[in-house]
Predict the structure.
Amino acid sequence: MAIRNIVTIDDPVLRKKSRPVVNFDEKLWTLLDDMKETLKKADGAGLAAVQVGILRRAVIVDVGDGKPLELINPEIVETSGEQEGQEGCLSLPGEWGVVRRPEFVRVRAQNRKGQWCMYKGEGLKARCFCHEIDHLDGIVFTDRAKRMLTDEELRRLNKEE
Ligand code: CO
């Protein structure tokens, strides 16, 4: 496994649409393993393949409630409720915004063997599913943010951590 470089928002690749994964082979497994390691080291909750420069529809979600999830060709199939909260992104270090997301999300995705599985998440996990799946269509959270946090709010947030 290897740590990959996380691209930042000035890289136009983040605005591109990712293509479906078609080959469930060793090359994909290496990518997924590297993404998991990269996400862990960056101490984030989610990472999309495009963030390591690979335009394929694969994401890792790890909200600390068990094993990290590998979602390949994920699709949101159901949403309900609403939440509003702070959101950031490993590709926009130091920037936080207030983003409205569904409170509950159901996702259909393939695993690394190509089998279709269902996943559900509420709260932070639901937020994460939406955020990462947005990346696959070139959307970043600042596109959806109601507003960005002010310097004063960021200072307060950093103090809490
Ligand atoms: Co992100």
